Amino acid sequence: MNNAIEVQKLRKEFKAYSSRSGLNGAFRDLFTRNYKIATAVNDISFTVKKGEMVGYIGENGAGKSTTIKMLTGILTPTSGQITVNGMNPHKEREKFVQTIGVVFGQRSQLWWDIAVQESFRLLKKVYKVSDQQYDDHMNHVIRTLDIEPLLDKPVRKLSLGQRMRCELAAALIHNPPLLFLDEPTIGLDVLVKLKIREFLKEINEKYNTTILLTTHDLTDIEALCERVIMLDEGNVIYDGPLKNLKETLGEGKELQFQLLEKVDLAAVKHVTSGMPVKWEFDKKELIFTANIEDSDELISQVIAAVAAAFKIKDMKINETSTEEIIRNIYEKGAVEVG
């Protein structure tokens, strides 16, 4: 079997209860509750091949975490079929958990009050990993993630970046063929993120580890994944290569201006009125960004208009970012990529 994950018509519905108002309402709620059915994941289907690194992306509430919880056996689907590593995650729970590693950015699998290496020892027993296997594999993991100095510290004394590196190591104690990462770099500084990305690339190359990654940080996706599955309101709206998305939808350019004087967005918009330009303003960095089509003539017209009206301190021309492309997709709905 070449697929690590197979999902067919997967659906998850939740009952959303509403409370009636007033004392009378509260009393009636004791006997009957009003509820409506909310669909978090809406009949989605996809497969992930062994050794693939796939980005699973979507805005908050799109259904990403619900999907991951079903794929890891934490939640039972309302309907549909899931096969992960050749098993049903829910029915073959004990055998199944031996074959996956999971890192949830918001939840810890390490024991709070004991030293990191004690947690590792406990997990080693849970996963029935022999001393030989542990030494062969974990020495490399500990060295690459640079967590040796942290092994004697209790988890509560670690910074977020240190804890996430230890969480990642903990998920790999049994060297699973499949790794689920749910927001693994949330709140981390750039250097830690780079270290984690390099490490993930390395285990993917060395052990052919399959990785399904959900994240809000699109630079993670760009650095690691060739393929993205994009979710919106429980539906898959795109599944395919990241580069196709960029080629088809990333045909624009971003012009970034920093001005010497204090100017508001309306004034900048005014000087390019009549031109097909979408302006944004970053208040923190004081940068005006014009999103436009990739046309030399239009680029020079916009630059000329801004330069004639204001004193420019700095200017940059960028390809449209993945973030911008994805924001446009969410605004338009499903994606047609030829």
TrEMBL record:
Query: Residue ranges of the ABC transporter domain?
Result: 25-258
List the SMART domains. Answer: AAA
- Molecular function terms from GO: ATP binding; ATP hydrolysis activity
**Keyword vocabulary terms for this entry:** ATP-binding, Nucleotide-binding, Transport
- The name on file for this protein is ATP-binding cassette domain-containing protein
Native organism is Neobacillus novalis
Top-level taxonomy = Bacteria, Bacillati, Bacillota, Bacilli, Bacillales
